[in-house]
């Protein structure tokens, strides 16, 4: 079972995405701030991370910087899921994220589909 770490400070969105991924058969851990997210990345060792950019304690950019410098985490795929305006191409090229998705323009089903594309998981029937 693939492990997803959701780092999101909006409790309603976090719960919604957590429920969706659990329903789809993923093991899910959550964090509501960047510092907790970094700690959970170390302990949980997720297969993929969904990361908001605007977070308390340490920002999503801090989390990205940490992950890319840590040999154990630098190859973990990270999808940015945010409403912050960010340069999509720059985030992918300069920060090494696999995708940037805007929450306001993306359904939970589309997020799960993107995760399935990044982690070749057989489609459930």
The proportion of strand residues reads 15-25%
Contiguous low-pLDDT stretches (5 residues minimum) are none
Q: Roughly what percent helix?
A: 40-55%
Q: Give the ordered list of helices and strands.
A: EHEHEHEHEH
Q: Over the alpha carbons, how many angstroms does the gyration radius reach?
A: 13 Å
Shape summary:
globular
Counting DSSP H or I runs of 4 or more residues, the number of helices is: 5
SS-derived structural category = alpha/beta
Give the mean pLDDT.
90
Number-wise, the strands total 5
Note down, in words, how this protein is organized:
- With 125 residues, the protein is α/β, with parallel strands linked by helices.
- It is 42% helix and 18% strand.
- It is built from 5 helices and 5 strands, in the order βαβαβαβαβα.
- Strands 2-1-3-4-5 form a 5-stranded parallel sheet, with helices on both faces.
- β3 (48-51), α3 and β4 form a beta-alpha-beta unit.
- α2 packs parallel to α3.
